[in-house]
């Protein structure tokens, strides 16, 4: 009998309850970069110009011609999706010896592995200075640090929000930070 299968028979109630309740910390990648579901591996996404942000004169006198919009040309952005998968094999002998459903555990492990990879890709993208316009990244120097009551964290954050609003026309409504950072800001 293999030691691996013997290991499947051991039951530690404390460790088992901890293992059952374990999960990765909450992923935030989907809050920063929302996932859009599609049935196809390739899609054409319509792109629109700035006319959506233009104020038009909509007032019309009685009997006057209607105000007519100039037809906007829309473009498309072709996207081809990459496939990600992960397999977690389960031997039939392993399933027979275990007190847990090994197939369910394998599915959870594989799903968590794919989700963790997606989270890491999102984190790298969000922290990559090359994806932002010039002047839209602020590096804090040692003298700008927010530690020990120094610096102006609220002012820096609000200046960053204003820079985003000026560039996009939308005020950002999402900011992520670690629990330790939030405690220091209070």
UniProtKB/TrEMBL annotation:
This is Major capsid protein E. InterPro entries: Lambda_capsid_assembly (IPR053738). It comes from Escherichia coli.
């Amino acid at each position: 009998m293999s030691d691996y299968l013997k290991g499947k028979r051991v039951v530690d109630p404390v460790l088992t309850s901890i293992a059952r309740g374990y999960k990765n910390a909450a992923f935030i990648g989907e809050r920063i970069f929302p996932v859009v579901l599609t049935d196809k591996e390739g899609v054409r996404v319509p792109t629109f110009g700035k006319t959506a942000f233009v104020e038009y004169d909509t007032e019309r006198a009685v009997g006057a011609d209607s105000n007519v919009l100039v037809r906007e040309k829309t473009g498309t952005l072709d996207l081809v999706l990459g496939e990600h998968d992960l397999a977690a094999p389960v031997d039939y002998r392993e399933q027979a010896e275990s007190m847990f459903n090994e197939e369910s555990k394998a599915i959870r492990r594989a799903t968590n592995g794919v989700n963790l990879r997606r989270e890491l890709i999102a984190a790298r993208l969000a922290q990559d200075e090359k994806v932002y316009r010039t002047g839209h990244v602020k590096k804090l120097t040692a003298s700008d640090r927010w530690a020990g009551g120094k610096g102006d964290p609220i002012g820096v954050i609000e200046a960053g929000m204003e820079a985003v609003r000026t560039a996009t026309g939308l005020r950002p409504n999402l900011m992520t930070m670690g629990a330790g950072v939030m405690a220091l800001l209070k």
